[in-house]
Amino acid sequence: MNTVLLDFNTRAQEVNDYFIFLEGLIKQTTKLAVADSAGQYQIQSLNPELAKTLKANGLLLLYNLVESTMRNAIVAIFDELKNQAISFDQLKPKIKMIVLQNLKNRAAEKIHLEINQISTDIITATLERKELFSGNVDAKLIKEIAEKYGFSYQTDFAKTKNGQNLVVIKRNRNDLTHGDKSFEEVGRDQTIEDLLKIKEEVIEYLRQILENIKTYLDNQEYLDVTTGIP
Prior knowledge:
Blueprint: H1 2-27, E1 32-35, E2 41-44, H2 48-83, H3 93-105, H4 108-111, H5 118-125, H6 139-149, H7 157-160, H8 166-177, H9 183-188, H10 192-218
Antiparallel strand pairs: 1-2
């Protein structure tokens, strides 16, 4: 989980750097210098249409952060189960259901070589990282995932708005990816102030969710304490 947190911090800083640069361009505290045919540099303001495209691109960066963070977090849970040699019988019922659903979705010929001790190997062998998410991550889905695995989805509302802006990011990401809206259309609807606020809330929300998952793993809250199995 420490690796996941380090990766998140790196990606979050990349997003922060982009928005700092974009804010400077829009507010003209950062200038564009364009060379003319004689090699002389002329200072130019940011084209308003290009600004819309750059703002829309910022939403794509944010969604990429959201989905990659949650994918890495789920993989980290399974890695922890493997590292701790947790058996299927030790898991909480809801997590058993996740494993069984994963097994249903995997072809036997693709996983049989990965399984030596079925009680432990079946947990991680059936996970398909690439199929975890596909443009569908928002706060509602994260809450559903938290309830299935048993980690907390509670965050500091004053700082995170409980991730309510993730649905805005997801919707715009899908509009752009599927070609339903142009970058200019999406960027037109957002001011740089709006985007900076959304960015801060989303990064803090993800950070707190990751901390919740770390606590969950540290306390082995994935275990079914009613079974009496050590």
